[in-house]
Amino acid sequence: MSSNKINIVLAGQGNSGKSVFFNFLTGLHQHIGNWAGKTIEKCEGTLFYKEQTIDVTDLPGIYSLTTSSEEEVISREYIIHQKPDCVINVVDSTNLERSLIFTLQLLEFQCPVILALNMFDLSKKKRITIDINKLRHILGIPVVPTVASRGYGITRVIDKVLEMQGERKEYPVQRYGKEIEDAIHKLTLKISGLETPYPGRWIAIKLLEKDPDIVDLIRSKDEAITEEAWKLGEHLEDIHGHDAALVIADERSHLASRIARETVKLSHHQKSTLTDRMDAVATHKVYGYLVMIAILGGMFLTVFGFGNWLSGIFDSLFTGWHASWKENVGESFIAGLGWAGIESVLALIQIALPYILPFYIILYFLENWGYMSRISFLMDHFMHRMGIHGKGCISFIIGFGCNVPGCLSCRIMESKRERFITTVLVTLVPCSAVSVIVFGLVGKYVGLWWAAGLYLLAAVVVFTVGKILSRLMIGEPVELIMPMPDYKAPRLKTILRQTWGALEEFVYIAAPVVIISGVLIQAINLAGWMQAISSFLKPVTVNWLGLPAVTGILLIFGILRKELILVMLAAYLGTTHFAGALTAQQMITLAVVSIFYVPCVATISVLWKEYGWKKALLICIIEILFAILLAGLVSRALNFVF
Amino acid sequence: MVQQGDQFCLTDMKEGQTGVMRSVLGGKMAAKRLADMGLTAGTEIKMIRKALFKGPVQIELCGARLVLGRGLASRIIVDPK
Q1: Which residues of B touch A380 (CB under 8 A)?
Q2: Consecutive 10-residue runs of chain B (81 residues): their mean pLDDT?
Q3: Based on the domain organization, do A31 and A136 belong to the same domain?
Q4: Are A153 and A215 within one domain?
């Protein structure tokens, strides 16, 4: 069986339709698109074709194969170490020149490559003609036009993969300028004696580019080679006046445009496209912001409207369950714990279906449509003041729905510094559970303006923390470099598949932690320690925050799921008329604590997974202290108002 | 920041104006990322729009749209047409 198993990978730049290609090949549900950063996880699928088993791996959408971001390292290491039988390079055929730069880098690996000219229908529409035969001839690899969204050309690509099996031929080499080729040649000769998994020519290029990983690797084997590379690099710099890495990147780019010039014909009378006309409004200096506010506002209203409606239905559906559990299973300690487990599952369902599901559907609609890049464009300047660039705004928007996917989406940020700052800020964004508290408590009993004021406070806090973090964290902020894709009609099937993938990830990450901690807290409760804990917390809750002692317990349960603070308060009071038990001042104080004190367990588990337990713990402790401090100050300031 | 001597940077271009990129000042990493996106010396650039305040700029090169942060754009030297 393993003898005829074929292993292929899909590689390509963002927005090339690569993941759609992958979906069509494998029919597997998975996450696509670069925005939510999902493609950083390895997506694998299997295809059965002409009695062959073909394993397909989807690599992250990337721009180059040099070590400047984690996705790129993943891709390059995968191609080198797994030695796939074939790399299918999916490119945006409307944008061949830029895509070819990546193709040239792939060819440097000296692996079998097939070029899939994707979105071929769009290039026709844009009156771009590509001379496929000539392109095939120049690159020396198979070139197949495809339209992945409709499945056009995909079987031809796989047929090519099958044809290529068994035939062992020389991989085509694209030559750069003379000085560079001389340097590469000298280095390749020296490297040929070394044992490395990488092809010699590729190592030579990376040494000249001063790729830190490769330089370290080679230095550990033969220091003379790295010294030689250093000298050759200096020589190149003397000739060209700038860094050798840049000289090579320039050469590659020029080679790509030369190939594009020879094979692509653009029709001259290009009239303004639909995208240009839509962008005239969507990225306009004034209307652009109005459109953005309208779209995002509409999105949140829809999600909250739908969410409240559906969670109301769930509430009435689940009401009798606890009573019948007690009746049938009993009220023993174990039965109590069992119920806590069930309750956690119900809680997950009640967040996932009413809020996260519609949120993701709209989010992926906007992403597939192409609107998310416009938001990044509009918000870049503002985000820069927090030390991150425009793409971070997308994570904030997701964080409004739920912090868990919000934090996960920070993977789209290029550097570790940016990713960390964005993640911390997202944990401070009020998610839909916090909004339930803000509206259910403050909005309902103190006034809508006060609720709006709390959102403003959250914005100020996020902004200030961002400013502080960007000062504290060393490293230069990364500037926004982002292609602006065309608007595309979103496909329902794609949106649903992405939504399913995101929901799956949410459940996968959140479920274990939520259930375990639900049972644990219930155990503490049943053991009768809650009273002790609430009196232990009294100095903070009663003395500093001016809240009733019971809030200590509420805030502990709130770690599970923040709206539990409100739900349990109602249970404790035996009524949802909170105004009878809490003053306006106390309600606002409680809401402030709820917004900022510690992210919920599901979010903590993401922090843990992404940054390790030390950083996760540090974030939690700092945020708890900060929330208590802030809420105490707010409470004191409110003395002057009420 | 905006005008480097008599050098004309990307941010000095008016919307709709075209020019040819000459070089990038400093920032080796940024210059390399730009080259990977097809923006190198000699590339023809058209300024599409500049965002409000000191926001990013949107340019067009070889038929593709690219958004660049203002700080980076102000370090790209161009020969305007």
Answers
A1: 51, 55-56, 67, 69-70
A2: 63 86 76 77 85 85 82 85 79
A3: yes
A4: no
Digit-coded pLDDT (tens) for A474-516: 777 778 888 888 888 888 887 887 788 778 777 777 777 778 8
Which of residues A106, A137, A164 is at a domain's end? A164
In a domain, A281, yes or no: no
Residue range(s) defining the domain that contains residue A251: 178-266
- Interior/surface letters A180-198, b for 16+ CB within 10 angstroms, e for the rest: beebbeebbebbeeeeeeb
This prediction has a pTM of 0.75
> Collapsing DSSP states into helix, strand and coil, what is residue B42?
coil
- Alpha helices by DSSP H, listed for A209-271, are 212-221, 223-240, 244-263
Look up residue A422 and give its amino acid.
T
Whole-angstrom distance, CA of residue A229 vs CA of residue B33: 22
Contacts with B, A 460-479, CB within 8 Å = 479
Backbone angles phi, psi at A574, to 5 degrees: 75, 15
CA dist A33 and A113 (Å) reads: 23
Answer yes or no: is A553 within a domain: yes
Residue A246: beta bridge partners?
none
Residue range A605-619: mean pLDDT, rounded: 87
Q: Are A14 and A61 in contact (CB under 8 A)?
A: yes
How many structural domains comprise chain A? 3
- Domain assignment present for A549: yes
Query: Which domains, ranges and CATH numbers included, belong to chain B?
Result: 10-80 (2.30.30.90)
Is residue A520, in this structure, part of any structural domain at all?
yes
CB pairs under 8 A between A and B: 131
Task: Round the average pLDDT of chain B to a whole number and report it.
Answer: 80
Query: In Å, how far is A156's CA from the nearest CA of chain B?
Result: 28
Token pair, residue A443, equals: 């909005």
Q: Among all chains, which residue has been given the structure tokens 């009609």?
A: A489
Using one digit for the tens of pLDDT, what is the confidence trace for A388-399? 888 888 889 888
Please answer whether residues A255 and A104 qualify as being in contact, where contact means their C-beta atoms are separated by less than 8 angstroms: yes
